[in-house]
Please model this.
Amino acid sequence: MALTLTGLGVALPSFASGPAALQVAAPSAQSLRTTPTPTPGIAAGTMARQRRIFRKLWNIVNERYIYPDFNGFDWQAARVEINRRINAGMTDEAFYEVMRDLIASLDDDHSQFLSPDEAREEDAEYEGIATYTGIGIVSAVNAERGYIYVLAVMPDSPAEQAGIRPHDHVLEIDGQPSVDASGESQSWLLRGEAGTTVMLRVRTPGQEPRLVEVQRGEVTSVERIEHRLLSSGALRIGYLNVPSLFEADVLSRSRAAIRDLMKDGPLDGFILDLRINGGGTYGNLRGLLAIFTSGDVGEFVSRSGTTTPIRVRASGIGNSQEVPLVVLIGAETESFAEVLAGVLQAAGRATLVGQRTAGNIEILLSHDFEDGSRLWLAEETFRLLNGAIWEGEGLTPNVLIPLGWDEYTAEDDPVLAAALRQFESR
Model:
């Protein structure tokens, strides 16, 4: 998914894919067609505010949503139905639930509505100060095999202290399957009061399951940017894993890591790992592109056909503008992470190694409302200079490694091994 902030009084820049930890599972669209139970005693001022917010939201979607057919959803009928429900009387909590449901009914898997509390949490995550009580993992779902698996572990978190590592499968949480019968993650079971414990049945790929008891604690949601120097024969290869483009200091931390890799001189090759990167801000996208390339790299395209070119001014570190480059991609690579990889591939700067990406490059624009709630709406898509758009299809790697993140460990990483071979063959 992709996020891009407009100048509507929001402190954030723009995004290409909402942070997974903040996405809200909206109720079924069926609830829009049910008869609401009137809530007596709703103040006239509350109803008036709800009407203003809904009217503004409805008009934004009506005029700007990238799909003019609203993906087959009857947008006109929704206005009549929801106005009826507001007039019948709703608490703010019920109103926010209906707004989430409405935007989910567009069925693009990207656009979303956030309540004021959720919007504040999103702002805190962007600033790197978001905290919650849990164990401190970022996970994805393997619905076919019925488990969640670990993409990342937060630094100094209870999960890290308990020995849980990226690539691990969480099979059960306190005796319950980590994925329910409908294929939905039950990772919410990991949350709870600080000091309480949760028993996990965990399996490292290729090993037998084990029981791990983890004591919940306060976790700061900061992604770990990893870098290290790899050797391949006589070659010095820099490795940088950027797990997200969302947080405000991603670019500064990435640049600091590259400077560290370059401190002893130019590198013979560079590996940029985007396999678990779900996107983030436009500023971080442009900043990372500028380290490796420059010039006109593509454009954003709106429903009306209006285009906004993306121009990148080189801002290299050491020999980063010329160094042979391999980008690692996978099924979790989405939105602006996909754009980053796709631009570098199209420019001839990078070889892509791994799996096909998610194909989520709709650009979301942010709209804040008077009560602090927020709409993220898919209003644009990205197009390369050659006209290529891969929404719904994903990027095709130059070197395909048909193994998912949950099928190997960091110590036995076939994608990284294949990337190193690219430099040996030069």
Q: What stands out?
A: The longest strand covers residues 374-384.
